[in-house]
Design a protein that fits this description.
single chain, 327 residues, alpha/beta, DHBP synthase, Rossmann fold, 2 domains, nine-stranded mixed beta sheet, 11 helices, 17% strand, binds threonylcarbamoyladenylate, binds magnesium ion
Length: 327
């Protein structure tokens, strides 16, 4: 895994031009990139992830100026959000230009676009001088990678190059706003909050229309997503304390993703104490779930963190990674 220096980026550009796959760091999570204008290359992304072909991908671009190359029209709201938040953890869904391959958009008339805020990603995009389609670099329905080693664990030899840019600063996937209709709609919460977006647009965002099982267009909206392999349950502190004796007895081994709860690690219990600030919690979330997963435990209990606005993306991901506590 080379560091994302000039030579590695030059090599990555050569691979992308040949239709090969390059994993690269962004500020949110690592992406699995391919030339967005090359349908064969884009198909390789789906094969590597084991992801259904009708799930659209985000096209990463070097700057907002490139919007016109991908979007049929760029509404004022898109200009405003791009000017305010790009480069940054925000993807905008716009009506696509006819030339954008259907492989990228899952056959839809819209395309998701984002300028990531990571120096290596920006250098790569500038050197490539085109759009890079990139979902998170994990296998379908698994936790997104926030370190280069996670990408190697997830995808092994099916990726041609992994650029190592260290640990991702944000740690959860971008906020997605759909601007293809009459009114803006929040499709996926992220580090950029609903309140921040509404402040810039001076209008309320619609909430996502929940996809039915046969029409799952935003994969992040599936009920189980971003899940660890170990069954994980989300519960408030009192329930966690009450349930623990029954769960961690006998030969049962439990992992705890704790917010306030404290208990020494023992034969039965692996505890990770999470940061108290939302930003730091988000940054550590996926790596911590991965770490607990590696112990091969019987269950993971996730202590419910705060539920205020700053924690919205975290709670969204926690709900998707867990099942209801039922003991
Ligand atoms: O932070 C991120 O966005 C990361 C990094 C690599 O940029 N990427 C990422 O990609 O999370 P992925 O594929 O794991 O999630 C992209 C989400 C999916 O839920 C997909 O359904 C949605 O974006 N999406 C993409 N194009 C769309 C479109 N045209 N309409 C609605 N949703 C779309
Ligand atoms: Mg993903």
């Amino acid at each position: 895994m080379p560091a994302a220096d000039a030579a590695a980026i030059e090599y990555a550009v050569r691979l992308l031009r040949q239709g090969r796959l390059v994993a690269f760091p962004t500020e949110t999570v690592y992406g699995l990139g391919a030339d967005a204008m090359n349908p064969d290359a884009v198909r390789r992304i789906f094969a590597a992830k084991g992801r259904p072909f009708d799930h659209p991908l985000i096209v990463h671009i070097a700057s907002a100026e490139a919007l016109n190359a991908w979007a049929a029209s760029v509404p004022a709201a898109a200009q405003q959000l791009a000017a305010h938040f790009w480069p940054g953890p925000l993807a905008l869904v716009l009506n696509k230009k006819p030339g954008v391959p259907g492989e990228v958009t899952g056959g839809q008339d819209t395309v998701a676009l984002r300028v990531p805020n990571h120096p290596a990603a920006l250098r790569l995009l500038q050197a490539f001088n085109g759009g890079i389609a990139a979902p998170s670099a994990n296998r379908f329905c698994r936790i997104s990678p926030t370190q280069a080693s996670h990408v190697a664990e997830e995808l092994g030899d099916s990726v041609d190059l992994i650029l190592d840019g260290g640990a991702c600063q944000v740690g959860v996937e971008s906020t997605i706003v759909d601007l293809s209709g009459d009114r803006p709609r929040l499709l996926r919460p992220g580090h950029i909050t609903r309140q921040a977006l509404e402040g810039v647009l001076q209008t309320e965002l619609l909430t996502p229309v929940l996809a039915g099982p046969s029409d799952i267009r935003v994969s992040g909206m599936m009920a189980v997503h971003y899940a660890p392999l170990t069954t994980a349950m989300l519960c408030p502190l009192p329930q966690l304390v009450a349930a623990l004796p029954a769960l961690a007895g006998g030969d049962q081994r439990i992992g705890i993703l704790a917010y306030q709860f404290e208990m020494p690690t023992s034969r039965h219990i692996q505890l990770i104490r999470m940061p108290q600030q939302a930003e730091n919690y988000a940054q550590a979330l996926y790596a911590s779930l991965r770490e607990l997963d590696r112990f091969g435990l019987d269950r993971i209990l996730v202590e419910q963190p705060p539920e205020t606005a700053a924690w919205q993306a975290i709670n969204d991901r926690l709900r998707k990674a867990t099942v209801a506590l039922n003991v």
